[in-house]
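Co-fold these.
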Amino acid sequence: MKGLGTSPGIGIGRVFLYMEPKLEIKKDSIKDPETEINRFRVALEKCCNEIEYIKNLTIDKIGKDKAEIFSAHRLMLEDPEFISAVNEKINNENINAEFAISEVVDFYISLFDNIEDEYLRARSEDLKHVTKNLLRELMGIEPTNLMTIKEKSIIVSEDLSPSDIAQINPNIVVGIVTELGGRTSHTSIMARTLGIPAIVGIKGIVTKVNHGEDIIIDGSTGDITLSPTSKVISEYEIQLKRDLELKKIMSLVRDKKSISKDGFRVEILGNIGTPKDVEKVIQNGGEGVGLFRTEFLYMNSERLPSEEEQFEAYKEVAEKLGNKSLIIRTLDVGGDKELPYLNLPKEMNPFLGYRAIRLCLDRQEIFRVQLRAILRASEYGNIKIMFPMISNINELRESKKIIEEIKEELKLSGISFNENIEVGIMVEIPAVAIQSRTFAKEVDFFSIGTNDLIQYTLAVDRGNEKIANLYSQYHPAVLNLIKMTIENGHKEGIMVGMCGEAAADENLLPVLLAMGLDEFSMSASSILRSRYLLKSISKEKVREKLDELLNLSSSEEILRFIDENILINVKNENQLFGG
Amino acid sequence: MISKEVLLTNKTGLHARPAALFVKEATKYSSDIQIIKDDKTYNGKSIMGILSMGAANGDTIRIQVDGVDGEIAINNLIELLNSIVD
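Predicted complex below.
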């Protein structure tokens, strides 16, 4: 069986079938409204106290911001309109609290459903859940207590509420399976935070399993195996053991510096596309952000982002990173990346066209707004500016001149910013790599954008299926250009980093290290693996082989050379990688 | 009684997080706080009320306060609304 895996990991245990009893609300007439209103009030208080208890439990076990949901629940229970509406119904219609409540809630839910808003739909779910608890309290129905589960279990249920999950003990509950939900529902989010494998979206699973039955789930693939054979169980157990070992080792390097076996230090950073992504980079031990793509502000919108909007976004990330570097790349759109409201002309050759810095220098009103926002935000962290797709020295000089003009503007307005803000460029056009000695004199750092550097150097469109196999980060020309860039950068005393995918390539890590790359920026999920791998690589030993490698004639020869002469040593050190 | 008009400029209007922040602030004051939109009145201290109002980006709402701490209340609430971007 298969569902949507929303929290990775393997769970081996027994089914704990969690079914909620359906609540039967009957309309009863009551004799004394005042007693009934009091009954309602007492139940409300009890529910509020329970929510406080579970909220504190969640803060301790999971974290403060995941516990915010319970504050929202409390707001609902304490809502004056809600309470007076129920009291009025009880008084005027002489009906029982349960029925009064369900009628008032139905009214609100229909109001919410009429407004097309995703947030409200989620609030609608919350309201239903809060009401269920309130009604159970009134009717004296005990909910199943998930804290009493004693053996390694996987909860199977139609749905789980935040308060259900808050009560789970992750050492006993090793997996969650629900019929409802998606990647962003409470179940998935909290399961990921707790590190419990979860699979959602399997309609009817509740009728297909038996309480106590053996079950194995894989939260990465969404596979579920019921009553597995002992052979299958031992296979999964082996995988589970490896996963746990890997996790433990990764967490060991999380807060450590990025150092090679022979003591050479580099920095491993994260690439992000929106402010939210920075959390994951920090959680995975990133030493900063080597590439903050700013296109998200411009895309999926009907108009250009304002200076304020941009400023808030840059400031948010800068503050979260503290004094760790944040390299912000200026607008890199045009060509294949659509911005409908700019009315850019359709081009025959978008990759070689009117885009990125070319667009920005031509439409300076756009460029200046972004640079103003970045400079203002520089006051709140360690921000550096990076220009994409520079192809000649004049573009760089003009861009830097504009920055100086903006600095003057801000000074005149009395707005503070980092006067010594570092300015660098992406090295992605071969001309810049070849001319890197000259460029290195006029920038504070380089960041090699291998994705585009490879495309331009080899004249290969990676997206073109017919020739995509010609694209290779192991091509001798590419590696030689990278080496040239790093060496020239160092001759002028500047930092050279890399933010393309090659930075996370395990095969290239030793080679790049040996070439002297100072900074590796990659997606958050690759950071720990790279730092761990780095510990078993000796920079000096690889450097001895570098010349021979760079003189090989093809990608295939280079990859084989790496495998047979460099990685072989690394693999022997590490049982886990390739072992 | 004091009343002032506010243009909602944040992205989601008085939905989502802004609504919760507004209610949390409003409940600090003893004054009566009402929001008027399209001739309908809503209780500013009621999260349900505000959410069901459906005030979006670009809408104009009128905040009306009545009580001892009315002036502080309305000023703080307007400052809050102006400081929210999302």
